[in-house]
Amino acid sequence: MPSNRPNAPGRRFLGRLPLPEYRYVADALRAETLGGALLLVAAALALVWANTPLSHSYETVRDFHLGPAALGLRLSVQHWAADGLLAVFFFVAGAELKRELVAGDLRDPKAALLPVVAAACGMIAPALVYTLVNTVGGGDLGGWAVPTATDIAFALAVLAVLGTALPSPLRAFLLTLAVVDDLFAILIIAVFFTSDLDFAALGGAVAGLVFFWFLLRRLRVRGWYVYVPLALVIWGLMYNSGVHATIAGVAMGLMLRCHREEGEEESPGERVEHLVRPFSAGVAVPVFALFSAGVAVGGDAFADIFTRPETLGVVLGLVVGKAVGVFGGTWLTTRLTRAELDPALRWSDLFAVSVLAGIGFTVSLLIGELAFDGDAELTGEVKAAVLVGSLVAVLLAAALLRLRNRAYVRLAAEEERDEDRDGVPDVYQQEDPAHHQRLADAYENRAAEHRARARERERGAEDAEDRDA
User: Fold this and answer.
1) For residue 436, what pLDDT is reported?
2) pLDDT tens digits for range 354-396
3) What are phi and psi of 245, to 5 degrees?
């Protein structure tokens, strides 16, 4: 996702976004916010379903197996959601990352420094908190990666309710942070949660990816009916190779062409992302949440969360580790690069966003399943810890955002004001008089063309009347 290139010496950090990036962020926010709302609904439904007398039916549906056994793909509904549908989610993440690397701010190493460092620190700190708690408490260190991921859809759904007036630079920072966070999560899954490799299946998956790239980038074949079946074959081979199947989605997303060529209003990567994102946000992630968030949350379960080192490490990692890591990494980087915070914002605003980054859901639940595979009881407790940690982060972020809501409303009104109704916020025209003049000239030329066409139509009508006469 886009950011505002804050990191070069003397540059302003969290200043106003360039107009194209402002519009891109607004479009992305609308899509992610809707997906986040569906995610919350699915998670709530799962919790209700799993904690009522209907819990047996929930387990029956979740554990029901289907699929071709001969291809090694007879999986439970829960595994189809985690390994299959989430591949679509990671495909979109790969496309977003590719866009940032070739056409967004991550293509500039100086501009990329801040979100990369913030995301890295925001993953290292929770892992350290988890490791410290479990070293002292004698817990299982295998879950160190559970609290490291930020769920951007969940976070933006919270923002839609609590921070509707949050300035776009802060939202853009959170979006960019999440893209880099997804990249690190992908690397963690690929490196640390890969089982025994089947090199034949892995070779087939790699060959399929090469063929996918050749069709896409060399032959420039178009048509979903070509790529969807090929993607399914690649996914099935990747699953059987022992590498987590979501890696196939990421790899295909990274292969998309995301730079615009002459005459293109949007690149193929942007077009595909716009087509697939609704399915990812509206179907894939909510269905995964429905069959992964259904954990028992009785009194004993909550008591265990704060007494068992594995679950306590997850909660503290999300609430404390994320906030300290993201904020500390950002503050240190701006000091080293001599960047200045935009005068309209305060460091407390960035801290509130850093706390919001502690909302871990989709990827955290996935990593929890992978880390404690085979221990159903501990897996359930870790999932409950993810929910509790995310809820605490929501409440803390809400309190911090409310403190400055009046200032956010004022900034948002200034950012969105368009008194001349030309589709361009006035603040951009005020800051760029040349752009305003070019825009006025373009409108005048267009009006002159309309007047000329009107005169031609009038003359044509007069000529027709003369002929009739």
Assistant:
1) 46
2) 998 998 888 898 899 889 988 888 888 898 899 899 999 989 9
3) -65, -25
3-state DSSP assignment of residue 13: strand
On the 0-12 / 13-18 / 19+ scale of CB atoms within 10 A, 101 is middle
Rg (CA), the chain: 25
Are 66 and 243 contacting, i.e. CB atoms less than 8 angstroms apart?
A: no
For residue 212, which amino acid is it? F
**Contact (Cβ atoms closer than 8 angstroms) between residue 309 and residue 139:** yes
Question: CB burial class (10 A; 0-12, 13-18, 19+) of residue 393?
Answer: buried
Give the residue carrying structure tokens 């866009």: 99
C-alpha span between 365 and 314 (Å, rounded): 11
Residue ranges of E strands in 257-400: 340-341
- Residue pair 166/159 in contact (Cβ under 8 Å)? The answer is yes
Report whether 130 contacts 321 (CB < 8 A). yes
For the entire predicted model, the pTM comes to 0.76
Coil/strand/helix, residue 423: coil
> Which residues fall within 8 angstroms of residue 130, CB to CB, at 6 or more apart?
143, 144, 146, 147, 313, 314, 316, 317, 321
Using CA atoms, how far apart are residues 402 and 161, in angstroms rounded to an integer? 11
